[in-house]
Write a structure and sequence with these properties.
Elements lengths: L4 E6 L5 H18 L10 H13 L7 E6 L7 E2 L6
Antiparallel strand pairs: 1-2, 2-3
Helix pairs in contact: 1-2
Length: 84
């Protein structure tokens, strides 16, 4: 089996939706794991959206994405969190 091509790069504004999707999954995963420590707060999804929108274009911040090419016939996809 061929190893997948993996690229780690700085996120761009085009990655914003993908980053938000996985950031929200990560927050929910933490909340489900320990709801007393990771409380859900009002508008947390909007706050994550706004935070990453600012940080992705902030030259002093580093937001990274990982692109994995599964095989030569499939397009590259971005995944930063497994949900299994």
């Amino acid at each position: 089996m061929k190893k997948p091509n993996t690229t780690i790069r700085k996120a761009t504004i085009n990655d914003h939706q993908g980053v938000i999707k996985y950031a929200i999954k990560l927050v929910h995963q933490h909340q489900n794991f320990n709801p007393l420590r990771f409380v859900e707060f009002a508008n947390h999804e909007q706050q994550l959206f706004d935070f990453f929108a600012e940080e992705i274009v902030n030259p002093k911040a580093v937001v990274l994405v990982v692109e994995v090419e599964i095989d030569t016939l499939s397009p590259k996809g971005t995944e930063i969190l497994r949900t299994e």
